[in-house]
Amino acid sequence: MQDPLRVVVADDHPVILFGAEHALLKFPGLEIVGRARQSTELVKMLQTAACDVLVTDLAMPGGQYGDGLQLIGYLRRNFPNLPIVVLTMLENTALLKRLSELGVTSVVNKSDDLSHIGLAVQHVSRNLEYMSPSVKASLDALRMNSGGKTDEVMLSKRELEVVRLFVSGMTIKEISEQLNRSIKTISTQKNTAMRKLGIDRDSELFQYAQSNGLLNLSSHAPDDLGDAS
Question: Within a 10 A sphere around the Cβ of 113, how many other Cβ atoms?
C-alpha cells in the first residue's frame, strides 16, 4: 500500500484554511500533517515535519519571512525540492509569470471550486503542472494577446514611481505635486502601468504591490518590476 501524500496547508483566513482542508480530505491518499496561519509558523513546521506538498496562500502578512513573492522565493531557496501549490485571488499575468520564474508550477484561484486544490496536489506530486480554470484562462488570454510571446512585463522608472506612491496611500493630486508633474501625466502613467500588468481595478493594484514587495520599495526602486520581490 502506497504511503499517503503529506500535505501542509497555510492560509491566514480560517474559512479558507478550513475549506482547503475539507476539499483535500475528499481525495484518497492525501494526509494533512500541518496547518499554518503565517510564514513564521509555516517555516518552523517545514523545518520539523515531513512534508510532500505545500499548499499556501500568497497574501499572508504578519510573519517573520514575509509573504507574497518574498515568501515564495524564501521557500524555493530553502526547500528547493518541495512542490508548492499557491492559492491566490489575483490572476494578473505579471504575477503568474513571476511565480513561474520562481519554480511554482501550480496556482489555484480561490474563486474556483476548491476541489482544484486536491487536483493540484496530485499533479505537483508527480512533477506535473496544474492551473485552476480561471488561472488557465488568464494565461491563455496572455498567450493569445501576445501572439504566443510572453515577454517580461516592464514598467518605466516613472511608471513604477507612480505606482509605488499610489499604493503607499497618496492621491493622484498629491503625487503630481510631489513629482512636479501634471495630474493628467500622473493619471496616464498609472493607467499605462496597470494596462501593462493586466490589472483593471485599484484593489488589484494594491494586491499586486503587496505580493511584489512594492509597498517596501525605496525611491530608488529598479526599473524592472519583475525583479521586485
Answer: 12
User: Cα 84–98–186 angle (5° rounding)?
Assistant: 140
C-alpha to C-alpha distance for 176 and 189, rounded to whole angstroms: 11
Q: For residue 99, tell me if it sits in a domain.
A: yes
In a domain, 139, yes or no: yes
Phi-psi region of 123 (alpha: psi -120 to 50; beta: other; left: phi over 0): alpha
pLDDT per residue of the chain (229 residues) written in tens, 0 to 9: 678 899 999 999 899 899 999 999 999 899 999 999 999 999 999 999 899 999 999 888 888 988 888 899 999 999 999 999 999 887 677 788 788 888 899 999 988 999 999 999 999 999 999 999 988 887 776 665 544 444 445 678 888 889 888 888 889 999 999 999 999 999 999 988 888 877 777 877 887 777 666 665 433 333 333 333 3
User: Is 28 in the same domain as 125?
Assistant: yes
119: buried, middle or exposed (CB in 10 Å: 19+, 13-18, 0-12)?
middle
CATH of the domain at 198: 1.10.10.10
The owner of cell 494586491 is: 207
What are the backbone dihedrals phi and psi of residue 210, each rounded to the nearest 5 degrees, phi first? -65, -45
What is the spatial distance between Cα 71 and Cα 98, in angstroms, rounded to a whole number?
13
